[in-house]
Amino acid sequence: MRIAEVFGFGIDNHSKEVWESRNAKTCPFRGTKCTKVSKTDPLGICSFSDGRTAAVVCPVRFLAQDRIFRDAGRLAFGDGAKIAAFPEVRILKIEGADGERDRKIGKVDFLLGHIINSEVIDFAALEVQAVYISGTSVRPSFDEFLTTQGPSNSYTPVDRRPDFRSSAQKRLVPQLQLKVPVFRRWGKKFFVVVDSQFFAALPNFPRTSRSNSELTWLSYPVEKTGLDYTMNDPDVVFSHWDDVANALREGDPPEPEEILAELQQKLSSNRPPTIFET
Question: Which residues pair with 85 in a beta bridge?
Fold first, then answer.
């Protein structure tokens, strides 16, 4: 896949204003300097694309126009609700040993607070998950793009690809296992934001109704529009946590007899395991 967006704009966009923003290393999605990988020399790649639909590699990309907060807030609290997004709130407490302070873990990307008359009366969780890229370093192609500042076909590292499986199993699943049961116990809504390519790569799981949803997915298509890419309306998927957890668990367990047969084969091989007495 090809690099799609650099510092917030499509790589086919070479307007003067866009290059001024790129040279300043600005992230237009949060209105500050990009800090991805490094504060002084950020790797400002937002997404990769097949030329039509992008796979988001930086979670900040999802913050465009704050729409993920509005979309999730509308689903959680209804139309016209006033909400605030509270970033990086820890929800689990570990009591300290004798004389030590308690500490908190389980950081949620955002808690959405429902506000009435300047008071937070309810809340919901919002996790944002981008995809990892596997393969050799993309830095040379990125640096070349910034140096040439013009059209080129060389920004296509062919040995780079979005690693949806690793992103789901190694990053997303552990986060959901830690946090979703807490919000289910509280009876609070939990939302996960991904792009449409990421969601399409997930295993299939049953869908449920909006009122019964314990884990609601907002799957955003990030599609090329002219020279740039636009995050369009999400596919909203309602699900039960147990169904998702079972689907994301890799593989189906065999029958115990299959395990016994495999162990017996290893025991009878030319290199059997060491046998101990208890």
Answer: 112
Measured between alpha carbons, how far is 124 from 116 in angstroms, rounded to an integer?
15
SS3 state at 266: helix
pLDDT averaged over consecutive 10-residue blocks of the chain (278 residues)? 92 94 94 93 93 94 96 96 93 74 81 94 96 85 86 59 89 92 94 97 94 96 96 97 87 81 90 86
Q: What are phi and psi of 247, to 5 degrees?
A: -70, -35
Q: Is the dihedral of CA 6, 9, 10, 13 positive or negative?
A: negative
Are 95 and 101 in contact by the 8 Å Cβ rule? The answer is: no
3-class DSSP state for residue 204?
Answer: coil
Q: How far is CA 52 from CA 24, 196, 236, 267, in A?
A: 27, 12, 21, 54
Residue 260 lies in a domain: no
**Those residues with Cβ within 8 angstroms of residue 209's Cβ, 6 or more apart along the chain or in another chain:** 238
Domain around 234: 2-248
Q: How do beta strands 119-128 and 190-195 pair?
A: parallel
User: Given this model, what pLDDT does residue 151 score?
Assistant: 66
**15 domain-assigned:** yes
Indicate the number of domains in the chain. Answer: 1
Which residue's entry shows tokens 């290059």?
Answer: 19
